[in-house]
């Protein structure tokens, strides 16, 4: 891991375990004195590792970029993850965001579509009608 970037609890990371397993997850604890982080594994090439805590040396970890989760399907996946990890605050935050998105979608559907006609400088339609 980059020495300038300090890993913090709850940061999303990916890396390799001592057994060579590729893992993705979030930091549960970070021990900078020993140079080890305990990672809750969400994805792995070894199915048995998923859902477990593994200790990984800090240099073997890479912080994942945090993106915005604007897609409804992504929000559903994250809500499932919040339930699995029993993170009530995150669950409430995600469900509020999902409800907001659904409300915005229903409001945009209820609006009348704008009607317009394309005209050229002579006042006739510039689009071929079929």
Automatic annotation (TrEMBL):
Highest taxon listed in the record's lineage: Bacteria
IDEAL domain ranges (all copies): 73-98
Pfam families assigned: IDEAL
InterPro entries, A to Z: IDEAL_dom
Region of interest (Disordered), ranges: 102-130
UniProt name for this protein: IDEAL domain-containing protein
Native organism: Brevibacillus gelatini
Lineage: Bacteria, Bacillati, Bacillota, Bacilli, Bacillales
């Amino acid at each position: 891991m980059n020495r300038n970037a300090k890993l913090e609890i709850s940061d999303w990371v990916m890396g390799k375990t001592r057994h060579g397993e590729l893992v993705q997850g979030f930091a549960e604890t970070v021990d900078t004195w020993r140079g080890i982080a305990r990672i809750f594994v969400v994805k792995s090439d070894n199915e048995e590792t998923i859902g477990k805590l593994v200790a990984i040396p800090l240099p073997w970890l890479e912080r994942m970029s945090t993106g915005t989760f604007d897609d409804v399907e992504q929000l559903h996946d994250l809500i499932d993850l919040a339930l699995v990890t029993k993170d009530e605050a995150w669950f409430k935050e995600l469900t509020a965001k999902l409800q907001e998105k659904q409300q915005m979608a229903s409001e945009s559907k209820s609006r009348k579509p704008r009607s317009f006609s394309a005209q050229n400088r002579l006042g006739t339609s510039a689009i071929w009608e079929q």
